[in-house]
Amino acid sequence: MTSEPGVSVRVPAKINLGLAAGGPGADGYHDLATVFQAVSLYDEVTATLAEDVSITVDGVQAEEVPLDPSNLAIRAARLLARRSGIDAGVHLHLHKQIPVAGGMAGGSADAAGALLACEALWDLGLTRADLIELAAELGADVPFPLMGGTAIGTGHGDVLTPALARGEFQWVLAFAPFGLSTPRVFGELDRLRAGRVLPEPRVADQLMHALRSGDAQALGEALHNDLQPAALSLAPKLERTLAVGRDCGVLGALVSGSGPTVAFLVSGADMALDLSIGLTASGAVRDVRRVHGPVPGARIIDPARGGR
Ligand code: C5P
After folding, report:
1. Measured in angstroms, how far is the CA atom of residue 123 from the centroid of ligand 1?
2. How far is the CA of 254 from the centre of ligand 1 (A)?
3. Per mean pLDDT, which range of 15-19, 24-28, 45-49, 131-135 is the poorest?
4. Distance CA 64, CA 56 (A)
5. 183 lines ligand 1 (CB under 6 A)
6. CA-to-CA distance for 286 and 251, rounded, in angstroms?
7. pTM
8. What torsion do the CA atoms of 237, 12, 141, 113 make, to the nearest 10 degrees?
9. Contact, 113 vs 72, CB < 8 A?
10. What distance in Å separates the CA atoms of residue 293 and residue 223, rounded to the nearest whole number?
C-alpha cells in the first residue's frame, strides 16, 4: 500500500449484446452497430503524483499487460497531459480482473480509468463528456467504460447513445485460457465474408425491445454477434464452451466482442451454479465468473475525494 495521496478509479468491463459489422473502410476500420452493457467485473486504476509517467500491474494475468509506452493507460495519461497543456507526471497502478485480450475491453477500461483518475489527480476541471471525447482518440472501445450502463455504439463503435434498459440481467462469463487479437478477428471476418454484399449495420429491434421491457428470455433470443463466426473459426474450441451452456438450458449465449470470453445469460443463481460446474468440469475454461449488468461507468473510489 502506498501512503502517497492518490486517486483510485473502479472501471467496468463490457459485453456486446448485439454487434453488427459492415465491411472494412479505407482506414481498415469497420462500421459497427453495437449494444454495450457494462457488467460487474472491474479493474482498478490508481494514479499517484510522480516525476514522469510509469505503470505497474497486479491481479489476474498481470504478466500479460505490456508495461512499455504502447500501454493504452500510459497513452491515455500522456494524451490528457498534452491536451491540457500541463507537464505533470503520474504513476499508474492497475489492479486487473478483466481478462487481457478477452473481448471485454480490458485495456480500453484501463485507459478510460487512467483518464478519469489523472483528471482528478491533476485537478483539470474537465467534464465526463470532455473525457469521453478524448477517449475516442485512444480506441473505439475506450469511451464506453466512462459512460457505463447500456448504450448503442455506432461509427467505429465509439459514437455512443445511452439505451433504455429495464431491470438487471444475470451473466456467467467463461474466460478462455488463451487470448484473441481484435485485428485478427476482424481480418478473419473479412475473409469469411469476402465477395458478399453487406447491408448497413443496424441494431435489431428485437434486442432493443427486450432491453426496454427487461425481458431476459427475449434478450437471450436476441443476442447476436457478427464477429462470433470469425472468433470460432480462429478458436474452434469455443464451440465446446458454448455447448456447455446449451446443455444447461441458458437463456442465451454469445462470444463477447472479438472473444474469446463467452457470456451466458442465466435466469438466476441455480442456473448460474449448474453452468459454472459444467464449465469447470469441461476443462475448456481458465475461470468462470458470475456478474450482473448494467452497472455504472468508471467511478472514483478514493474516499478522500468522494465518488463523482
Ligand atoms: O480502436 P481499437 O484500437 O480498439 O481497435 C483495434 C483494432 O480492431 C483496429 O486496429 C481494427 O483492426 C479493429 N477494429 C475494426 N473496426 C472497428 C473497431 C476495431 O476493424 N470498428
Report:
1. 31
2. 20
3. 24-28
4. 12
5. yes
6. 23
7. 0.95
8. -130
9. no
10. 15
CA distance 135 to 156: 13
Q: Is the Cα dihedral 6, 7, 10, 13 positive or negative?
A: negative
Angle between helices 106-121 and 128-138 (to 10 degrees): 140
- Rounded distance from Cα 115 to ligand 1 centre (Å): 20
- Residues annotated as catalytic are 14, 141
Supply the pLDDT for residue 303: 58
Report whether pLDDT(307) > 70: no
Q: Indicate whether 178 pLDDT > 70.
A: yes
CA angle at 111 for the pair 106 and 115, rounded to the nearest 5°: 145
> What pLDDT was estimated at residue 5?
75
C-alpha cell of residue 307: 465518488
Rounded Cα distance, 169 and 150, in Å: 11
Q: Decide if pLDDT at 119 tops 80.
A: yes
Q: Is the CB of 80 under 6 A from ligand 1?
A: no
Atom from ligand 1 closest to the CA of residue 28:
20
pLDDT band at 62 (very low <50, low <70, confident <90, very high): very high
Instruction: Report whether pLDDT(87) > 50.
Output: yes
User: From atom 4 of ligand 1, which residue's Cα is the shortest distance away?
Assistant: 139
**Cβ–ligand 1 contact at 30 (below 6 Å):** yes
Rounded mean pLDDT of the chain?
Answer: 95
CA of 246 to the centre of ligand 1 (A): 30
pLDDT at position 1 is 47
